[in-house]
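Moderator note: this is an archived Q&A kept for reference. The question asked for a predicted structure of one protein chain; the sequence and the answer are reproduced below.
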Amino acid sequence: MRIKLGEMALGFLIAAGLSTGAAAQHIGKYVPIAAGSDADHAMQEINAATDPAQKLALIDKFASGLGEGDMAIVANDLYVNYYLTQKNYPKTFDYGDKLFAQDPDNLANAVNLVRAASETGDADKLIKYGEITSGILKRFNAAAAPAGVAEDQWKQEKAAALQSNADSIRYIEQAVYAGVYRTPDPTKRAGSLARFAELFPDSPYANQALGVAATSYQQAQNAPKMLEVANGLIAKDPNNLGMLLLLADYYGEKGEQLDKAEAYAKKAASLADSAPKPEGATDDQWKQQTTLQKGIALSALGQVNLQKKDNASAVQNLQAAAPLLKANDASYARNQYRLGYAFLNLKKLPEAKQAFTDAASVNSPYKQPALDKLKTLPANAPPARRKAA
């Protein structure tokens, strides 16, 4: 959604007689341009120009001659839109920052600069302009009614303005989220996504951002931050399947908060059976995903059983998980490795050997540990001891 020069960046008005309605839809300082004025004629000439060099010369002329006072806002907006169209991003950011200095609440400028940051893949600038946008919206929502405007009317006008700019706001949220999501470094990605969720708590991408932040902290081996974000998201969204799985698996592996881990694993297994298919996912894709998620939940539950020394339940849950995890080598191998220990604890050597063999049969971090464990096991089970006569 690029703002074209001809659209006047969401509302610098040409016809003064329409100013009330247009101003009500504009978030930021409103600069009316009277019909028939010198500024009106200059703007029409700029918008009619098709040659980029000619257009820039006309903008320069406008800025040097008419761009004083509030008209400097119009001039800098023209520069932002021009350089964005030309993909001259350094100039876009330069004039966009000048425009924010003059008009800190200019939502149209935020749209343009977020687009420029998105097109350049600059995650730092995406967060920067996301923070600016969040500030704009907070100030707008908190603004008191102007003198002479009834409170009910003011609420209606603000609601109308937000609705009019809903596509712009959603674009900013989507672009910032998508841009920081692609950050290669997991620690930086996690911090940026957590910051995004803080800036836009009501965004449909907020919980997704927190979920990715938690798994990114896990990838970065920062367990305290992972737990902080994951538990915070569970508090907001108790049925968040991804976080239930993450926490159940983590606590089960560590042998910590086992009752909580057990409850989370059971809840995740149930949710995997009933979760609604998201828009855009095919039936096959959704079946594969929920099958894997249920398998991970059952495997986590089996690990909790192991930690609680309930080996019979561990075998039951890990055996149920195995066919569900076949499509994922790492998850399957870990499940079979766990199952091997459950069988060993029950003194079922042949079954334990088979489970460790299964764990070693696929390429995963569990391949070598499973092979090493197999080497330590006796060739045959010890004979049963005779009862004394």
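Archived answer notes: DSSP finds 20 helices and no strands in the chain.
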